[in-house]
Write a structure and sequence with these properties.
Layout lengths: L17 E8 L6 H9 L17 E7 L2 E7 L9 H15 L3 E7 L6 H16 L5 E6 L11 H9 L14 E5 L8 H11 L17 H16 L9 E9 L5 E9 L2 H8 L4 H18 L3 E9 L7 H6 L7
Parallel strand pairs: 1-3, 1-4, 4-5, 5-6, 8-9
Antiparallel strand pairs: 2-3, 7-8
Helix pairs in contact: 6-8
This protein binds guanosine-5'-triphosphate (GTP) and magnesium ion.
Magnesium ion binds next to α1.
């Protein structure tokens, strides 16, 4: 988010109105984007069972009578293997540095993994530079727990132990935890109450009907990428980038979209096209209704596949795709 985006709106609000930036962080696949969509009641972030789905910071604006939360979804924190990966991890880190509250999502069904230990170490490093805002550990996916599995409370202690250096006993508001399910919505209202308690008093920064600052054409490109992620296997999904090169609403109300699916190798182009174009057709057929929900009208979608060798390692290409790479 740019500084200029953050300007208070002058309007009548309850005296105890709160607002602030909540960084939603966690390792890939724990359900950050699913939770964001659930909280907003609208799909602005794509989700998938494959890790490293979200590639950039995404703003979701949640406005209630007594608070406005600027939720920043982030790419899952992992050990990066290419420039795009490095960028993704840096985005997550910078989001924490600017936040009023950190919501660290973990999977309630599994004990901490190495990735979580690395996230805790990252938080500790950041804390040494500048004290961290309050942290809430969200034990997500409680819907999927097998009968007789350990209580979230026991699991919570395993995760809380990773933040022992914050001395939570001396500073009880530094860390809290809550069990929830972004998928079913269970525990989400209680989570919001915990968030509100920890946010500073403050105004609204966006009109109450605005849900994000993302452009519709960006979300459309992401919805195409989501179907490509779902339908393609192994390395191919991670090698994909989608760019919408035409987006126009015609006189008859039809939204015309032409988009390019970039892959990194010629062999991947064949896979994305499929036999006689069957795969790209499936991707288009699955993405179109999703985009129609987004634009609330009929969509004509045209898809192309192009090879852009090793785009994930090339700064120029990453920049062109909107990843704000800095040297
Ligand atoms: N059972 C269950 N599954 C969930 C829940 N939340 C998310 N999932 C599933 O977990 C997978 C990952 O969800 P995402 O929301 O894409 O995860 P993410 O943390 O944003 O992942 P990255 O963007 O890759 O970092 C998807 O298959 C979701 O449907 C939940 O509360 N319960
Ligand atoms: Mg995500």
């Amino acid at each position: 988010m740019t500084e200029s985006a953050i300007r208070p709106i002058d309007e009548e609000l309850p005296p105890d109105h709160r607002s602030g930036v909540v960084a939603v962080i966690g390792r890939p696949n724990v359900g950050k984007s699913t939770l964001l969509n659930r909280l907003l009641g609208q799909k602005i972030a794509i989700t998938s069972p494959k890790p490293q789905t979200t590639r950039d910071q995404l703003l979701g604006i949640l406005t209630k009578e007594d608070m406005q939360i600027l939720l920043l979804d982030t790419p899952g924190i992992h050990a990066p293997q290419h420039k795009l990966g490095e960028y993704m991890v840096r985005v997550a880190q910078e989001t924490v540095e600017d936040a009023d509250l950190v919501l660290w999502l973990v999977d309630a069904n599994t004990p901490p993994k190495d990735e979580e230990r690395q996230i805790a170490a990252l938080l500790q490093r950041l804390h040494r530079k500048k004290p961290l805002p309050p942290i809430i550990i969200g034990l997500n996916k409680v819907d999927g727990r097998p009968a007789g599995a350990g209580l979230p409370q026991e699991r919570a202690h395993e995760y809380l132990a990773l933040l022992a250096w914050l001395n939570p006993d001396e500073n009880p508001t530094a860390v809290a935890w809550h069990g929830l399910s972004g998928l079913t919505g269970e525990g989400v209202n209680e989570l919001l109450a915990l968030v509100r308690e920890r946010l500073p008093l403050g105004p609204r920064y966006f009109p109450e009907d605005q849900v994000t600052d993302l452009q519709v054409r960006f979300i459309a490109a992401e919805l195409i990428r989501e179907q490509a992620l779902r339908l393609l296997q192994q390395e191919v999904p991670h090698s994909i980038a989608v760019e919408v090169d035409e987006f126009s609403v015609r006189d008859d109300g039809m939204t015309y979209i032409s988009a390019v699916i970039y892959v990194e190798r010629a062999s991947q182009k064949g896979i994305v096209l499929g036999q006689k174009g069957s795969m790209i057709k499936r991707i288009g057929q699955a993405a179109r209704p999703e985009i129609e929900k987004l634009v609330e009208g009929p969509v004509y979608l045209e898809l192309w596949v192009k090879v852009w060798e090793k785009w994930r390692t090339r700064e120029g290409m990453l920049r062109r795709l909107g990843y704000a790479i800095q040297n």
